Prior knowledge:
By secondary structure, the chain is an alpha+beta fold. The chain has helices spanning 19-23, 49-58; strands spanning 5-9, 28-30, 37-39, 64-68. Strands 1-4 form a two-stranded antiparallel sheet. Strands 2-3 form a two-stranded antiparallel sheet. The longest helix has 10 residues, at 49-58.
Amino acid sequence: MSAAVRVGVDRDLCCGAGNCVVTAPEVFDQDDEDGLVLLRRAEPPADAVDRVRLAVELCPTGAISVVPRPAHSAVAGSPDTSATP
């Protein structure tokens, strides 16, 4: 299983090639007006992480970044279980 990651995109670098959308459509989309990348999910599901990494490799301008997500990152609406009683 792949590690959890956080995805970022830089629309200023994007050239609209669309490789990311073809590779991981559950994570990326293209703007109907300018064709540039839109990030659908900054924290993709585990089964999409390998496709996201491939999208990073296929991006001709380097507009996509992936960084590991901290193991105990807080998620909105989730109780904080890191504090000790």
